Sequence to fold (127 residues):
Amino acid sequence: MAETRSGGLFSSLRNLAGTVITIVQTRLEILSGELEEEKIRFLQLVVLVAAALVCTALGIVLLTFLIVILFWDTYRLLTLGLLTVFFLTAGGILAFIVRNKIRMAPKMFLASVLELTKDREHLTSHE
Fold:
């Protein structure tokens, strides 16, 4: 009779260990998926930002030349001064927008943290 009890105890411990391993594996798979999503999102963002910067810079240079050439004979310095103020202001506003976008980005690994919190609450409520 002692063998069946100890076999039952070892069987229960083995089942518990298997359950814990399954839970950890599931959480690691969720974490891995989130890491992959964040990596893809970050790379897309970098490519888009780089392309936008190149196109915008080229457009700004060409527009500046066009406007300065139009006012070359009359208001050359005033035109350059106004364009400088405009572009610096626009750059500051865009930098502010980028900073806010970065601050408002979703928290990394949120799904994993929520699942681990649920696991902890489930385990502590059954004690």
The mean pLDDT is 83.
